[in-house]
Amino acid sequence: MGDSVPVDVRAGDRVATAGGVTVTATAKVTRARWAMGDGTTVTCRGPGTPYRQLRGKAMSPDCGHLYERPSYEQPGGRFKGTATATWTVTWTAPVLNDGGTFIEIRTTPFTAAVQEVQVVN
Description:
- Helix content is about 0%, strand content about 45%.
- Strand 4 and strand 5 form a beta hairpin.
- It has strands spanning about 10-20, 20-35, 40-45, 80-95, 100-110.
- It is mainly β.
């Protein structure tokens, strides 16, 4: 989907302790929304499937997009889009008998240069 977006979307636990209180938080991407810059929006449940080189140029099995025209007519010759990740964070503080869940939304811009290739047999 263009330039790589430097966001780690792996779920993970983090632990912090202060003043004898330990808080454990688990964050995971529950939705990713891609505004592709060509008028198309793709919404994925979770972070989508990470790209693996062995898949080559195959479409994502659960969250993909195919640009239907090249980007040379766009300002700077690139589509300008955004990736918006919705994170669900669950936390606990056992010594306080407390915990909860909150949502954090983060948006990252990206650009994609899309070329057209024509093959004549």
